[in-house]
Amino acid sequence: MMYIQGIGQVHIRQEEPNYGQFIPPAQLRRMSHIMKMGLYAGMEAMQQSGTERPDAIITASAWGCTEDTKKFIDSFISDEHGLGSPTPFIQSTHNSFAGQLAIHWKCAGYNCTYSQRGHSFESALFDAGIWLRENPGTVLCGIADENVFFIPGANLSAVPALFRGACFWALSAEKTEKSRGKIHTLLFRQGNLETFLASARAALPAGVTGSGSPMLCERLEIPFLQNSSDYLTETMPFAVSQWILDETVTPGQTQAFLEVSQEGYYSLIFVEKLDF
Amino acid sequence: MTHPKVFVVGMGAISSIGNSPEEMLNSLIREQHGLSPVKHFTPNFPFTPLVGEVAWSNTELAHRLQLPDTRTYSRTYLLGLWAARQAIQGISNNQLAQAAFLSSSTVGGMDQSEKLFFQKTREGREVTSETIQGHDCGAATEEIARQLGINGLVTTINTACSSSANAIMLGARMICAGETDLVIAGGADSLAEFTLQGFRTLMLVSESYCKPFDAARNGLNLGEGAAFLVLCSEKFLSEYTPVAELRGWANANDANHATASSPEGNGAQASIRQALKKASLQPEEIDYINVHGTATENNDRTEGAAMAAVFSTVPPFSSTKSFTGHTLAASGALEAVISCLSLQSGYTFASLHFTTPMEATPLVPIQKSARTNPVSILSNSFGFGGNCSSLIFRKI
Asked: How confident is the prediction for chain A on average, in pLDDT?
């Protein structure tokens, strides 16, 4: 059982946040978009949680830091044999924002980063769930992705559209007055739909409503929630976050977020909204 | 507090010193390293870098794996599939279907993506987006899992150079948490010009053979490879013969700098201490350390400082990166396999090209591969982003 204590988001379709709120301008200038988004969303989630610092940091990125990857590969094409700057190479690693977040809070605890296509965030959340069973404390768990590719004429839109933006949750095993949501179930599987459906059926209580994938709702024989809000069709962490923050959703309500994030990538997260 | 037991019941590996754990053991005992001038591509480099390259080309690998030649495959996928297939030999299909597959990579399909990029930029050729499907780190994992017939949880870790140690650690944690009884965990990384150039701009690529823990060390040799362990709970112990027990694990963050470790090696100290605690072992019970030992100035100095801080007498240690090169995401799993080979064979392995101890922490690594019959082995893996992971393996 996990409780969402704070939510930080950078939504690609909304106005960019004021990154300067959390990040000093000198650092901000050197940062790639993904780094800014990741740091901002992570710090926002922690601030909301009212906890000074996380005890573990678990992040995800399906594509990693593609802007710096492009910057670096361009630099060694244009700068043959020269000693170009190593900075974009250093910042090109998927775990660069997890590392920066650790430095920010001097968080010496568990630190891990996942990259599994449409299940990157789910993987991080799964690890957070195990960590919270092993340890007391707060886990900062989130995803950031950008969309830059280094081959001219080719880009990431050639592959299934995954996630763009950043979404972080501060998570705890204990319910407090800050708790915004309770994650009852997390399940994700690739490839075998029947295996996924069998596990999902076993995990879901009677009377739930589903959103996201009409196909999965139909196969699970649960009512597909018709809602005027279009956020329910967004990628999972955004959909859950916005559902929790939606004032028209009353505390105590539950929702099964079902997603086919790309071909063969099935996921279920069953969440209860809490009164905060 | 003791945790449920986790056993290693299968291993697969490929690197420049062998296409199987057995071949690697042979090279390690005979002190034959796998470093040579890069052969499969021509990086635009001021010198010809020595690398730990797997001898087979992609075509040969695909052929040996009996893959259809109708498409191109990333080298990370080919190396990973080779090692994973070896690891699961003897595991029943039914149990495999239930298993989790936890892989890791830093470059993913970069070898293919950069090839397309260079065709376009250096040769002015038109490119198609055909292989971009395999660029990301999760692509190879997904396909290997499908090839192995795995229906359980499948994911990929990328914590730079500590990645596969973290995949193995996640496997152990999943077993202890009761999430699964069987895990295939490890990682794969191919050589790429991208990473070679990256370490060059950091001025960390040695122009000669790397000299771990030597006063005159001047950087690393990159390598490539893949390695997977099959881990299981006590439940399956009657069915499979254990190679070793995975007794301890820990992950801590140095929280100091994006690439450089703190002078005291705080993250490394924490991961070693926490792994010992997890294993319920005292520092003096460690018989051999397979160090991270990249032979960069910063790593060896700070790892040495961390070892000196944790151990009143530093146990015999070596960096087998002097044989394989630094295989990045694969290194943790490759060195986990080497640790298990050490427990099985009784051999501990030499650290090559060492002559003079470092000034700050004058530690002398193992000079000769010899039978010393270790019982408990610590394996360290550290990475960019301050990631520090330690694993402890124990003889059955």
From this structure: 92
